[in-house]
Structure formats: C-alpha cells, structure tokens
UniProtKB/TrEMBL annotation:
Matching InterPro entries: FAR_NAD-bd, NAD(P)-bd_dom_sf, NAD(P)-dependent_oxidoreduct
GO (cellular component) term, any one: cytoplasm
UniProt protein name: Thioester reductase (TE) domain-containing protein
Organism expressing this protein natively: Kutzneria albida DSM 43870
Protein origin, superkingdom: Bacteria
Domain Thioester reductase (TE): start-end pairs: 5-228
C-alpha cells in the first residue's frame, strides 16, 4: 500500500512512518517546516528502494497548500491516510489550534473524500476534558468542560472525523494519552510537554504544585502509540469505525512522588490540595514558572481518570507494555543519562568502586 502520513516529522509521525516502511509499504510523508524524518532513537529514517517520498505542505491551507495537479495526484495515489499533523504544545493561541488542528483536519478529510480513502485520525485521549472516572473510547462530546484550547481543538477535530465517518468516509481514530519515551528503554527524541514540568519540579524551580495525590496521569510509550496506528492502517477493514485508546494504565501523583523521591539529585515537588493552593503566595521566581508553564498543565494534576483500553486490547495482537512505576523510573533514568534532568548523583556502587580505586 501507499500511505500518506501528515505530521510525518513529528514524534509520533516519524515512528509511524518507520513502522509502515518496515511493513513494506510506500510512504508519502507530508512535511511542513522540518524536512527530515528522524526516528525516536535520534537516527534518520532509511527508506529501502526509494519507498519514502517527502512532499511539503501546510494543513491550514486549502488543498494542503499543494497545487491542483499535486493534490489530484495525491488523492488518487494513496491507499490510506494517517493524520498526525497538529500543534501539540500548550499555551498557544486558540486561533492557531483552530487553524492547524481543526481546519487542518477538515482539509485532510477533504483529501480523503476525493477517493473515499480510509483515514486514520490521531486524536488524543484527553478529548474527555475534565471528566472523571473511566472514559470509554466510544465517548466523545458529552458536554464536558475542556482543560485548555488544545483539547478543545482536538475535540472539534475528532467530531469532524466522526461526522465524515457517519457520512460514509471510512475512518478510524487512535487516541494517545501523554506520549513519552520508549517502553523498554525510556528513550525519547523530544523532551516536551510533561518533561518540561518534570524538569522544573525536579530542579526545585517549582516546589509546590496544586494537585490531588490520587489524580491519575496517563503516560504512553511512543512505540506503543505507533504500533497501534500501524496496526490500524494494516488492518483497516477491522478497524473501520472504531476508536482506540493508545494509553498506559495511568500513574497516580503519589506514584510520581514516590518514584521521584528515589532519585537523590531530584527535588520532589509538594502536591498541595488545589483548594488550598494560592499562586499569589508563591515566591516571585516560582510564580513566573507557575504562570508560564505549570498552570498550563495544572488541570491534569486534578483529574481522577482512567482510559478504558478494552477495545485496543481486543484489537492489538500483543498486550500493551507495562507503564507502572518501573516505566517511570526508566523514563527518568534516560532523561538523566541524556542530561535533560541534570547529571545524576553517583549511586552507592559507583562511590564504593571509586573509593576502592583510590585505595589501590
Ligand atoms: N505528544 C503527545 O503527548 C500527544 C498526546 C496525545 C495526542 N497526540 C497527538 O498525536 C499527534 C502527533 O503528535 P506528536 O507528538 O508527534 O506532535 P509533534 O511532535 O508536535 O509533531 C507535530 C507535527 O505536525 C506538523 N505540523 C504542524 N503544523 C503543521 C501544518 N500547518 N501543516 C502541516 N504539518 C504541520 C509538524 O511539522 P513542523 O514541525 O515541520 O511544523 C510536526 O511534524 C497529534 O495529532 C497530537 O495531537 C500527541
């Protein structure tokens, strides 16, 4: 098959491209500003026998910014579309999310409609907004309050996709939670989003964070997300009309606290009951970090949610990777090794080995 992947240079997109190539497909990668595809391991993607073609486009523009012949060729030349392109960082303007995440999705739907090409939309599990409890993959707009403009735009985008599906376009949706490093190694190409909060807290720049100890943060390894997307492409006939949560099992803030405390070089943030937290009382330096970063993520530290992944477990040929405390340790160990969270303090074995060496 030939598969078009939008957002192909992104964290998820590049891993999806890698899987599609190794499954023997041809890939047309829609790139925007970044024009090279780097895998999560930091290495450029290799395309055997010229099976990877890059085209430059912009999802915010009608016809993805392509000229008519290019658009027509693309519409007629692909068997599946995977839509990953989006603005994923927080704190951007509502208008930008609308242009890229909502209008961008509409333009991709239009491309798919030209030849009724099956469309796999990459959404987010957090379209659930500030609901609590167990979230079913089949649920979408229940009038929930959204946590931020990003979530709101992804809700609108998925609503468009579902509507196109109801009107006859073959669609499937994959909803990742918070995408982080690889399951086995913790390796991640981009330290973004949750990693920034981890950096500010573990460095002691932010010492108190409003949150409930039993709030759940759902971290999912990037390789699992890409596996679910690639399976959805490959087995689209089975996947059509379905929504898959590509999620971990969730970690409570208490789990976070306990694991962070195991690392001698880390400050462990104090999670303060939100009703008792007053940003005005923060020291000046900390207040600036709160306003610029922590505040954007704050609602995640209050949510008591779990994502139902029964549908994904039924669909996937293998069990999802474990994402408990041991996984969080791996993520942190990698971020330390990579220098993102500062240098780690030497462990006991290393100190004793050094003392022994000095004794010799
Ligand atoms: N990362 C997460 O934690 C997470 C969690 C849940 C869901 N998701 C969803 O998963 C998908 C992929 O996320 P990601 O983490 O891989 O994002 P990412 O690393 O930020 O990559 C986003 C991609 O979208 C492209 N893009 C942005 N604006 C564009 C435009 N106007 N036209 C065409 N392409 C454009 C970017 O290209 P340039 O950089 O060249 O502009 C980049 O390739 C998104 O739909 C996101 O909402 C991500």
């Amino acid at each position: 098959m030939t598969v078009l992947v939008t957002g192909a240079s992104g964290l998820v997109g590049s891993e999806v491209v890698a899987r599609l190539l190794s499954a023997g497909h041809e890939v047309v990668a829609l790139v925007h500003r970044v024009e090279n595809l780097i895998g999560n391991n930091g290495r450029p993607l290799h395309a055997p026998e010229g099976r990877l073609r890059l085209i430059k486009g912009d999802v915010t523009r009608p016809d993805l910014g392509l000229d008519r012949p290019e658009w027509t060729n693309l519409a007629g030349g692909v068997d599946r579309i995977v839509h990953c392109a989006a603005i994923t960082d927080f704190g951007r303007t509502e208008q930008l999310y609308q242009q890229v995440n909502v209008a961008g999705t509409q333009h991709v739907i239009e491309l798919a409609r030209e030849r009724s090409t099956p469309l796999v939309h990459v959404g987010t599990a957090y379209v659930c907004g500030e609901r609590s409890g167990t979230i079913a993959a089949s649920e979408l707009d229940l009038g929930q309050r959204m946590g931020n403009h990003y979530e709101e735009s992804k809700l609108r985008a998925e609503t468009l996709v579902r509507k196109a599906g109801a009107d006859g376009l073959p669609v499937a949706v994959v909803r990742p939670s918070i995408v982080v490093g690889a399951a086995r190694t913790g390796v991640v190409r981009d330290f973004k989003n949750i990693y920034v909060v981890l950096k500010l807290t573990t460095q002691g720049r932010v010492r108190s964070v409003p949150g409930h100890f039993d709030a759940m943060l759902d971290l999912v390894p990037v390789d699992h997300v890409a596996d679910v997307v690639a399976q959805t492409v490959d087995r689209f006939t089975e996947a059509e009309g379905r929504t898959f949560h590509a999620v971990g099992g969730g970690l409570s803030l208490r789990d976070f606290s306990d694991v962070l405390a195991e690392f001698p070089s880390f400050h462990v943030p104090r999670f303060v009951v939100p009703s008792a937290f007053d940003p005005q009382r923060l020291p000046e330096g900390e207040r600036a970090y709160y306003d610029k970063v922590v505040q954007l993520y704050e609602s995640y530290f209050r949510r008591r949610i779990t994502f139902d992944r029964t549908e994904t477990e039924r669909f996937m040929p293998v069990k999802p990777p474990a994402t408990g405390q041991a996984f969080l340790r791996r993520l942190l160990e990698y971020a330390l090794r990579a220098g993102y969270l500062g240098a780690s303090l030497p462990g006991v074995d290393q100190v004793l080995a050094e003392l022994r060496n000095r004794g010799n």
